[in-house]
Amino acid sequence: MEGEKEILWEYRGSLFRLEEVSRWYGSGNRYEITGIAAGGTALVLPGSYEGKPVTRWRMRRKEACAGVKSLYIPAGLEEIFVENKLFPDLEKLEVEAGHQRFSTDGKMLYSADGRKLLYSLAAGNQHRAVVPAGVRKITGTAFRNAVCGEILFENPDVSVEEGAFEGCTWMNGQKDYCMIGNLFFRLMHSVKELRIPENARRFHERAFSGAVPEHLITPVMPSQKNMEDLWGGKRYGICRELTLYAPRAGVNFGLLRQVQGLRGFHIAGQHQKFCSREGVVFSKDGKCLEYYPQGRQERRYAIPEGVKKIARGAFMGQAFLEEIVMPDSVTSIGMSAFFRCRMLGQVRFSHHIREIPDAGAYQKGGVFEECTALKEVALPPKLQYLGSYAFCRSGLKKVSLNGKLRQMGEYALAAEGLRTVSLPSSLERMGKGALLYAEKLDACQGTAKGLVAAVNAVPPGLADKSGNVEWTRCMVRAYRKRGDRTEDFLIPGSVKRNAAYHLDMAWNGEEIDYTEYDACFDQVLDPEERLELAVMGILRTKGQEDSAYVTYMRHSAMKIASNLVETGKEEAFLAFLQEGYLSDAALEKLLKITNQKNMTICSAYILKYRKGNGARGQRRFAL
Asked: What is the pTM of this model?
């Protein structure tokens, strides 16, 4: 803790201001130099005061100490926080031999091993300063406010901290940009076109913090931090075009896919791995489309003939593209290729695509996930696998599935607008949540294993045991591979989760297993869905005394009969009538309803039933 009392002490011909500082750890206190009240031409800093060490030099007052020609730093001084301009006349610097923290060449102050340049001091007062080859790092105070007009760097790979040349005469004299060795250090002001010198191998992380070029021509890729400044939308604009001209320059497409606003990425023709056409990047042989800039403003793009592959994330986040046309030469699409292309409304697929891949295991993003403008799509005729999250959260309302599709991954068609889907008989297996929002399906019995879990699933990103998540009610019109017969297979939205496996087992056989299907009836919570299941089971369970529906039918006979009449299901109504669950009063009400609806067949059977001879148990007649 800093003391409140300042001490004036004359030492070796100079008057110093000292303050006692308490240690946070250990025993005893120490002193720090806070100012120099008066000094001679040779300034020797004190190493101790009254037996206590002076360990820090922190100048509180910024006035210059004119006239000081030489400076001596004792071994006990551990920390220095000063300004280069403090000694405008300094010519010589000395550090006590064996110092644990500092070293010097007589002009500048370095770390003990000479790898860090801490202060330019005497060298900063000269017209020309040379940073030795042994220096690996120039710290943030090295040339701050130094007046030297020329600085040479013997080590081209030297690193530089931010602020190292703030207020420096040399820095202020740079024109368009500043180079330090092979480091592009700073763009001085915004320009339309900036060509980085061929000897540049890297960019300082703050190279574009104060200015941005509209077109950057460079031999090396900017870093991630540079990307944030170049395309961060700051008040002084963003970079629109990027050209890479070195033949062996590395290209980080992962970084480029995070960039918004870039309209064109150009690669010199002599590059070893890539080439570009009108700002779009391809592999050297032109067979793979590698990158389409997010800020490119074309509404329609036709992929050139001869391209066989669309790379991973090639169009990711594209902000303007509304229509994409693939030539039939395309046979492969990479993961997340069109992820989050929110304006994309039309896709013309190549006829030779057999697979749309899954989203990445760790980096989510289906091929067309979050393409919210995409309302309708027809899948390629030869497609066999539709990967996970392929159209998840898209704007799909209609999809035409091809006749050769065999598998569908998790949440592949989990689009809120997609309510009706016809599944091909070729479909063998479906992943969880693949048809999360579907309400009506056409499917072939013995196919589409996992159909129940494809509908009854939690939304993506939630755990399977998440509470307060409603499942989707879905009616499946199940047809057989042979014949015209169809059956309704209701997947209730209110079935308890621990009973849903009955539905799954009922569907996953070669034919619907109604023993398993009926086993979940008592676990359906919604009254309307229970009624619907009972109505569907009337014809199927006719005459079965041990049916799961018997108790429910007896207690809800009038409700069931009314529903059958209201929905015009005459055959099911007559079958239910035969079971003898309806009272005479109920029959009287039903007769009025059937007469009003001109359901003459139902009315006739009610009359015949009422006139039946004998006890209630003898009221049977053939349909």
From this structure: 0.81
